[in-house]
Every structure is written in C-alpha cells, then in structure tokens.
Amino acid sequence: MKLCTKKAVEEARERNLQLPEEKNGLILTLTNTDGKKYGGMSNKPLEEFKEFVEIASRADANVLEIGAAYGTPYLMETFKKESMGHYTACELVGDQLRILATRIEELDPSKLSNLTLIAGPFPRKEVVDHLQEGGYDAILALHVFQFLTEEEVVEAFKQVHRLLKPGGKLFAKVMTPYNGITRPEVLQKRAEEVQNYLVHKTRPLPGFVKHALARSHIKDSVTDDLLKALGITTDLHVFQFDRDVMKAFLESENFLIEICEYSPLNFPPFALDGREHLTIVLQKPN
Ligand SMILES: C[S@@+](CC[C@H](N)C(=O)[O-])C[C@H]1O[C@@H](n2cnc3c(N)ncnc32)[C@H](O)[C@@H]1O
C-alpha cells in the first residue's frame, strides 16, 4: 500500500506515534500485524555503503530502501544533504513509515516531496506493483532479506534485478548461519547442505530455517528473555545466507558481483568467528 506522506505525518501526530528510545545503538522495531517482531534498527553513524548515499544525493537519482524501518541512518543522512534525488522507503510495518515521515517533516517539510512510502511485505505483488521496473539507480536492503522464505529470497533477487536500472546497484547485508546462538550440530548439518548445493545447484537454496529460535536450534545459554531484549519473537522463521551458495546463485541470476563476503558482527550473543554477516554489493549489467 502506498501511503500519502502528508497524511502519514498527520496520522502519526493524531495517534502520538513516537520513535522508540535507542538502547545500545539499536531502536527496536514495532510488532507487525502478524504478531511478530523483526529485530532492531541500527542508529549508528554510517560505516559502510557510503556509495549508496553518494548515489542517493544526486539530484536526478531514484533510490529504493527495503526494510527502511523508522528512517535508517542512510535515509536520514541522504535527507540532510542539500541536494538529493527521490527516495522510496518500503517497510512491512506501516506505523514505522508514519514515524519516518514525521522525522523528515521535522527536518525539512519541503523534502516530503522527495519521499515515497510503500507499506507491506517485499517482494510480494502488493508491494512490487508500486515500484518502477528498471527505475532505480540503487537499492539498499539491510538486515531484511533474512526474514524471507526460500521462495521469497529467490523472488526478492529476481525483483531487485527487474527494478534496477542497467548499471544500478544493490547494497545488502544479511545474517549467515555462522553465529554464536546456533548449536554446533545444526551448523554441521548446514555445511553438508551447502556442499550438496554447490555440487548439484538444485533448489531449494540451503538456508531456510522454519523454527530458527526453537530450542533444538539455539544454544541453552540464549534465553527467551535475552531474545526479547533483542526485539525478536521466538516464532520467527529465518533464511541464513552462505557466501558460496549466494555467489553461485547470484551469478546464475545475471548479476555482476562486486562484493559477496563475510563480515563480523561483534554483538553478543551473535558474535562467533567473523562470519556472522554477509555483505553483498551487486550490479545489474549495462
Ligand atoms: C532488523 S530490522 C532492520 C532495519 C534496518 N534496515 C536496519 O538495518 O537498521 C528489519 C526491518 O525490516 C522490516 N521487514 C521485515 N520483513 C520485511 C519485508 N518482507 N518487507 C519489507 N520490510 C520488512 C521489519 O519490519 C523491520 O523494520
């Protein structure tokens, strides 16, 4: 659903929707209509993907962010620039977009015309029907594709390819299986599935975990209270991305891979061995 930006501001004010307080650099996201919570928005200054903001700051640019939450530091940084293009923020939880709109209105009301708000689940039809085929210079998707099913992950990358302009880029960050909360025996099983995929290249892509936070999957030391404090509900399914699987898959989807490498998440209890995140930068060929 497309939200009118001015109406979004009015509704946020009427309903007194506020940006929640930040704790340890994270602002927990709101509960979705399905009763699930999808983690927190990072509120730290940008450390990487500065190229996304450079592209978004060009007056003729058209960019899209998927899982934009309440206005990520990337979005806010772009709207603080004197010059910028058009920014479409897509987010599952509509009230987060309403709060985002108030933040832009407080920053500079004239910039609301540079913003489009799409509420709903990417890559489902109700969302992608509002997006422009071949229309985007850059797409940003941070910590969002991990909440999709295997079919949705495949569809998400197909849609990203369809939506980018030739030469346009995707900047993404996702979780891997290699984190400190997963039981070692589960990791061993995943390694076998990965090897099998790399030999046969047949779907499903390994990585989907239906009950990711089930006791059979996570270590006993990770308590329900700890997960609650991290803004995660225990009934979540996740997709965990392996680097080699993704390299093979993304090449088959006709992307040019600039970066597809592990990166660390030094955040307990997730920290393990520096492979907790997968950083992805892709280009659609010209
Ligand atoms: C872990 S938070 C990350 C927020 C932000 N991208 C960041 O990195 O700080 C995940 C966000 O993605 C949203 N989300 C989850 N599934 C989504 C989907 N299918 N389409 C769009 N947004 C989604 C959640 O509501 C939440 O705001």
Task: Give an account of the 3D structure.
The chain is α/β, with parallel strands linked by helices and 286 residues long. The chain has one domain (2-179, 240-283): Vaccinia Virus protein VP39 (Rossmann fold), CATH 3.40.50.150. The chain has helices at 5-14, 50-56, 73-80, 94-107, 125-128, 150-163, 184-200, 224-229, 243-252; strands at 2-3, 26-28, 40-42, 62-66, 86-91, 115-119, 136-142, 164-175, 208-209, 238-239, 256-263, 277-283. The strands form three sheets. An eight-stranded mixed beta sheet has the order 1-6-5-4-7-8-12-11, with helices on both faces. A two-stranded antiparallel sheet has the order 2-3. It has a two-stranded antiparallel ribbon with strand order 9-10. The longest helix has 17 residues, at 184-200. The model has no long low-confidence stretch (mean pLDDT 94). Residues 64-170 form the Methyltransferase type domain.
What keyword list fits this structure?
eight-stranded mixed β-sheet; 286 residues; alpha/beta; 22% strand; two-stranded antiparallel ribbon; Methyltransf_12; binds S-adenosylmethionine; single chain; Rossmann fold
Biggest sheet architecture: 8 strands, mixed
Overall residue-averaged pLDDT value: 94
User: Which H/E pattern describes the elements?
Assistant: EHEEHEHEHEHEHEHEHEHEE
> DSSP strand (E) fraction?
15-25%
Walk across the major sheet and give the strand order. Answer: 1-6-5-4-7-8-12-11
- How many helical elements? 9
Bound molecules: S-adenosylmethionine
**Net shape:** globular
CATH topology call: Rossmann fold
Q: Which class best fits the helix and strand makeup?
A: alpha/beta
CATH homologous superfamily heading = Vaccinia Virus protein VP39
Number of strands: 12
**Annotated CATH architecture:** 3-Layer(aba) Sandwich
* Name of the top-level CATH class: Alpha Beta
- Radius of gyration, rounded? 19 Å
First and last CA, distance = 31 Å
Helix content: 25-40%
